[in-house]
Design a protein that fits this description.
The chain is an all-alpha fold. Helices cover 79% and strands 2% of the residues. It has a single domain, classed as Up-down Bundle (Growth Hormone, Chain: A). Helix 4 runs antiparallel to helix 6, helix 7 packs antiparallel against helix 15 (289-317) and helix 14 (264-284) crosses helix 20 (398-409).
Length: 437
C-alpha cells in the first residue's frame, strides 16, 4: 500500500501522508487496546480484587480499597501526559504512541501474573497499585497522541469526524473487556458462586494475559504510519519548544483549566454508569453477575453507536453547540437516576440506554474539543494534560464517591453528584472563547 504524498512548500520537499484508513485504524486500535486494559481492571476491581488483594476486612471496606487502587491510575495519568507529551511534542507522535502502548500493555500483563494476598501478604496490593500506576501512566500518554494522529491528518471540515475514531476505542474496549468476563462466567460450574469461582480458579488472570496479543496487533498497526503532516511542518519550521510543559502552564493556563472541567461531566457520567453501576447491581440489589455484565455490554453498544453521530453533529453544528446541548441533557437526566435505579433491572436498563447515548455524544466530540485550543508544538502535552486532569476530578473519584453517597445518603445523592458535575461543565463551556472548545 503506497502512501499519498504532498509537497511542503516551506521545506521544498515531498512528504509522505498517511492514508485515511490507516490513520483511523491506528488511532482506533491503540485506544481500543488501552481502554480494554483499563476496563478489565475496573471489572476485576468490582468482582474479585476485594477478595484476592484485600481480604480480612468487611466487604464494603474491601470494595472501597479496591476502588482506591482503581483511582491510582487517574492520578498517574497526568504524569504520563507530561512525560509522553514532552516527547510527543519534541520528537513526534508516532514513536511516543508506541512507547505509551508498550507501557500500558506490559503493566496489564504483569497484573495477570501477580501473586495474591494469600501468597505474599501486604506486598500483593502494593504490587497491584504499582501496576495500576503503570496502566495510568501509559494511558496518560496514549489518548492525546491518538487524537492528534487522527485530527492532524483530518481534511478541512472533518476534524470532529476524524477525532471521534480514537474515542470509539472506549466503547469497543469496554465491550471487549465485558465480553471476556461474560464468556468466563458462562464456564462457571453450575451452583458455584461466580465471584468465588473466578477468584479461586485463577481464570481472572486470562483477560489480563490476553492483552499481550492485542499489544502485538496494536504495535503492527502503529508502526505502519508516518508522522502527522502538522507535526512535520512544525519540524521544518523549527517550531518546537524545549519544555512544552512550561509553555502550556505559562501561555495556555486558561485552556488547560477550562478544558479540564469541560470534560468533567463526561467522566462522571461514564464511571457512574459503568464501574459503579456494576458494583451497585451486584452488591446492592443482588443482580446475578451474568445479568449485570449483559447490561454493561448493552451500554458499550449504545455508547459506541452514539459516537459517530457526535462526529457528524460536531462538524455540522460545531463542537461547542453539541457539548452545550448534551451537557444540559445530562444535568436534567441526573434527576432520573434515583427513580430509574429504584425500579430495579428494567429501570436500570432504561438508564443505561439513555445515559450511554448521552455519553457517546459528549465523548465523541470531546477529543477534538480538548485538542483545539493548543498550537501544534504543545498540542500533545496540552490536550493530554487536559484530558487526564479531567480524569482525576471526574473519573478517579466517581466510583468511590458514588459508593459512599449511596451508602450514606441514598441514590438521590448520586444523582445530585452527577448534576453538579454537569453544571460545572456547562459553566466552563459558556466561559470559553471561540476556538477553546
Amino acid at each position: 500500500m503506497t502512501d499519498i504524498t504532498s509537497t511542503d512548500a516551506g521545506a521544498g520537499r515531498t512528504q509522505p501522508l498517511n492514508k485515511p484508513s490507516r490513520v483511523l485504524a491506528a488511532s482506533l486500535i491503540g485506544t481500543t487496546i488501552e481502554f480494554y486494559d483499563f476496563y478489565i481492571y475496573a471489572t476485576a476491581a468490582v468482582l474479585v480484587f476485594p477478595v484476592l488483594f484485600f481480604p480480612g476486612t468487611d466487604p464494603m471496606t474491601a470494595l472501597l480499597a479496591s476502588f482506591a487502587t482503581f483511582s491510582i491510575a487517574f492520578f498517574a495519568r497526568p504524569f504520563g501526559a507530561i512525560v509522553f507529551g514532552h516527547f510527543g511534542d519534541r520528537i513526534g507522535r508516532k514513536a511516543t504512541l508506541v512507547a505509551a502502548l508498550l507501557t500500558m500493555g506490559i503493566s496489564t500483563v504483569i497484573i495477570g501474573l501477580l501473586p495474591t494476598y494469600a501468597s505474599i501478604g501486604v506486598l500483593a496490593p502494593l504490587f497491584l497499585a504499582l501496576c495500576r500506576f503503570g496502566q495510568g501512566f501509559g494511558l496518560g500518554g496514549e489518548w492525546g497522541g491518538a487524537v492528534l494522529i487522527a485530527t492532524e491528518n483530518a481534511p478541512p471540515g472533518k476534524r470532529s469526524w476524524y477525532g471521534m475514531f480514537p474515542q470509539l476505542g472506549a466503547p469497543v474496549g469496554l465491550f471487549l473487556a465485558s465480553g471476556v468476563f461474560f464468556i468466563i462466567l458462562n464456564f462457571a460450574p453450575e451452583g458455584a458462586d461466580p465471584r468465588v469461582w473466578i477468584a479461586e480458579s485463577g481464570i481472572w488472570r486470562a483477560p489480563f494475559l490476553a492483552s499481550a496479543l492485542l499489544i502485538v496487533i496494536g504495535l503492527w498497526v502503529r508502526l505502519s504510519i508516518t508522522e502527522t503532516p502538522a507535526f512535520q511542518k512544525a519540524i521544518d519550521r523549527h517550531d518546537r519548544v524545549a519544555v512544552p510543559l512550561a509553555e502550556v502552564f505559562t501561555k495556555h493556563k486558561r485552556s488547560l483549566f477550562l478544558g479540564t472541567f469541560v470534560a468533567l461531566a463526561t467522566f462522571v457520567l461514564f464511571y457512574i454508569g459503568s464501574a459503579y453501576l456494576l458494583s451497585y447491581n451486584t452488591r446492592v440489589i443482588g443482580m446475578p453477575l451474568l445479568e449485570a455484565i449483559e447490561i454493561q455490554l448493552l451500554g458499550a453498544i449504545i455508547f459506541g453507536l452514539a459516537i459517530p453521530v457526535a462526529g457528524k453533529l460536531g462538524d455540522r453544528y460545531g463542537r461547542r453547540a453539541v457539548l452545550t446541548v448534551v451537557t444540559v441533557l445530562i444535568a436534567l437526566f441526573s434527576f432520573a437516576l434515583a427513580p430509574l435505579w429504584s425500579m430495579g433491572p428494567q429501570g436500570i436498563i432504561i438508564f443505561v440506554i439513555i445515559g450511554m447515548a448521552l455519553m457517546g455524544v459528549t465523548y465523541g466530540v470531546i477529543g477534538a474539543a480538548l485538542a483545539a485550543p493548543f498550537p501544534t508544538h504543545v498540542r500533545y502535552t496540552g490536550s493530554s494534560l487536559t484530558f487526564n486532569f479531567a480524569g482525576i476530578f471526574g473519573a478517579s473519584l466517581a466510583p468511590y464517591a458514588a459508593t459512599y453517597l449511596q451508602a450514606n445518603y441514598g441514590l438521590h445523592a448520586v444523582g445530585y453528584y452527577l448534576c453538579a458535575a454537569a453544571v460545572i461543565t456547562l459553566l466552563c463551556i459558556w466561559g470559553s472563547r471561540k476556538g477553546e472548545v
